[in-house]
Amino acid sequence: MRRKGTETALSSGEMVRFNDTDSKRLGLGTRMVRDFGEKASVFAGAACEHEFGGQARAPIGGREMEPPSLRGDTCLGELGLTMRPTGGGLTVELDLQGYLGKRQGATASLLFKYWF
Description:
It is built from no helices and 11 strands. The protein is an all-beta fold. The chain has a 5-stranded antiparallel β-sheet with strand order 5-6-9-10-11, with no helix packed on it. The protein has a two-stranded antiparallel sheet with strand order 1-4. It is elongated and about 60 Å long.
């Protein structure tokens, strides 16, 4: 996977250019879903992935910073709820995810979908 680089200014006024980053990952996971009729379902999932390599390079003022390595393992868990309140094309999904390992953190998302 290639992440496109970007350029930004520091508070000192110096420009920093983050170069493109290549990422090679292998992951394995599963998700279980439990339906509660036609109106709702809950899901839980777990996955682990291994980053084989990649470095994030960012030269500042013509000097190269020490690039951090992206190599390592990350595991994630998720819990979610899907609701279909009208029985029609509307779906509302709440998803919570947590990450441990090389990447750490949490995300929450609320998604509204309408199919017609």
